[in-house]
Amino acid sequence: STVDLSDIDSFDNKRINKIVSSINYGNIPESYEALKKLTECLCSLNVEIAANAPAPAVQSNSAADILPQVIDYIKENYTNPLLDITNIGTHFSLSGYYISKMFKSVTNESIAAFIANLRIEQSKQYLENTDWSIAEIYQKCGFTNEKTFSRTFSKREGVTPTQYRKIIRNV
C-alpha cells in the first residue's frame, strides 16, 4: 500500500506510523521519499520540543558566574559517593570536561581533589569528636570503601585515620 505523504506537515503518531509502514524496500525512490518526509517530521518535532524546553540551570557559561554555584553544589553534595565531574556537569547542563577545566583554571585544584579535601576535613571532625567506627565515618563522608578512605586520608594527613584519632585524643 502507498500513503500520500503530502499531508504530513506536523508530528502525529498515526501519520508517522503510516509513513514507516509504507516504506517499500523494493522501491528505493519511494522509500527514500518516505524516509525524507519522516526525517522532516522528526526534525520539526525536535525544534518544537527545544522551543518548549525549560531554561537550563545555568544561564551563563562564564567561570565567574558558574564557579560559585559549582562550589556550593559540591559543598552540599560531597557526602554523595556518586558525586563526580559527570554528575556535576549534568546538574548544570554543561560538559563535565568544561566544568573541570574551568574549575582548575580558577582554583588551581581539580574538582576531585576539592571533593576529597572536603571529605577528609569532615572525616577529621568525626574522628576527633565521635566514637564512630572507621566504616561509619567513611560512609558518612562519601567514600565508597575503607581502603580508598584510608589511602586518601594517609596521603593527605601522613597517618591513617586510626592513627590520627589516637594522636588527637592523646594530646
List the helices and strands and how they pair.
Elements: H1 13-22, H2 28-52, H3 63-77, H4 85-91, H5 96-107, H6 111-129, H7 134-140, H8 146-157, H9 161-170
How does the overall form come out from the CA principal axes?
A: elongated
- The overall pLDDT average reads 81
Share of helix, binned? 55-70%
The beta-strand count equals 0
Structural class: mainly alpha
Strand content: under 5%
Q: H/E series, N to C?
A: HHHHHHHHH
DSSP summary: helix tally: 9
Terminal CA distance reads 88 Å
- What is the gyration radius calculated from CA atoms? 27 Å
The description of the largest β-sheet is:
none
Unreliable stretches covering 5 or more consecutive residues: none
Give me some keywords for this one.
171 residues, mainly alpha, 68% helix
Write up what this structure looks like:
- The protein has 171 residues and is mostly helical.
- The chain contains nine helices and no strands.
- It has helices at 13-22, 28-52, 63-77, 85-91, 96-107, 111-129, 134-140, 146-157, 161-170.
- Helix 3 (63-77) packs across helix 5 and helix 6 (111-129) packs across helix 9 (161-170).
- It is elongated.
- 14% of the residues are buried.
